[in-house]
Amino acid sequence: MLNIGEKLFKWIIKLLTFLSILLLAFIVIFIFNESFVFFKEVPIWKFIMGRSWNPLGPAENLSIFPIILGTIYVSIVGICISLPLGVGIAVILSTYTKDRVKSFIRGVIDVLAGIPSVVYGFIGLLVVVKFFEVRFSFAAGESVLAGGIVLSVMVLPFIVSTCAESMDKIYEEYSQASQALGVSKSYMIRNIILPASKRSIIASLVLALGRGMGETMATMMVIGNAPIMPKLFGKTQTIPSLIALEMGMAEVGSLHYHGLFAAGFVLMIMLLLVNVLIYFIKAKMDI
User: Fold this and answer.
1) Most buried residue, 19, 31, 45, 63, by CB count within 10 Å?
2) 67-285 has CATH 1.10.3720.10 classification
3) Rg of the Cα atoms in the chain
4) What is the pLDDT of residues 109-147, one digit of tens each?
5) Partners of 62 in the beta sheet?
């Protein structure tokens, strides 16, 4: 009876895995099929490298190079802010806090991860954007930096959770031996915990970068949504915000409509390239 249950469970898991892969393949094929109609009119290289996005103009005016840069720029700014903070918080949680305090802080972090993105965008619009307008006398506070700040708060819980779990295990494994040898906690963190946590830090980086590049609502509310070359204190637009803003008004079957699917296809390729790049970095680092 036990063997029958195990076999049944194994087949159910295989079926669910197959359905998941099938669903992912269907999404990729569907987006590529809708994008292919556009690429027959506009070469993919021209679409990626062109600098103008004007749905009301001719086909050659549908290109997304500034929008691609905006997507990358906002994500990198967010990661540069959140990664050091997230790793630092994970170190503190794993080594310097007691169980009750650790449980409370992790509960707060879990709550932050569950807050809808529109709430982050609304707070960013009222606090971050307003701060730039008042403190620095900007004509408009919407900018790449504002988007990066909001995004950094959104991805921080993912970084902390991923790193803290690994660091907890490493600290438990080496803490008694380090204390017996008279090694200070700061030395153990620098030379044991952080080097041994490289894999989890890289994993959190990939997770946060993918989350940041795919984020729509929060960044859309604070970056100004202008399809121009991005600057740190200037407006920009990301691929998800472009699709969210214009898909509803695009005529089904029009070149504009298929161009938005093409932008989504480019975003998928970007995320794939990021994951491949991180994979090779991990292989080179031998972690």
Assistant:
1) 63
2) yes
3) 23
4) 888 888 888 899 999 989 999 888 888 877 778 889 999
5) 53
Q: Report CA torsion sign: 251, 254, 260, 264.
A: positive
Q: Decide: residue 122, CB within 10 A, 0-12 exposed, 13-18 middle, 19+ buried.
A: middle
- Are 141 and 128 in contact by the 8 Å Cβ rule? The answer is yes
Q: Is the dihedral of CA 222, 224, 230, 233 positive or negative?
A: negative
pTM listed for this prediction? 0.86
Q: 224: which strand partners? A: 236
For residue 236, list its beta bridge partners. Answer: 224
Q: What are the extents of the domains in the chain? A: 2-40, 67-285
Locate 280 and state its tokens: 């090779």
Both structure tokens of 157: 């819980």
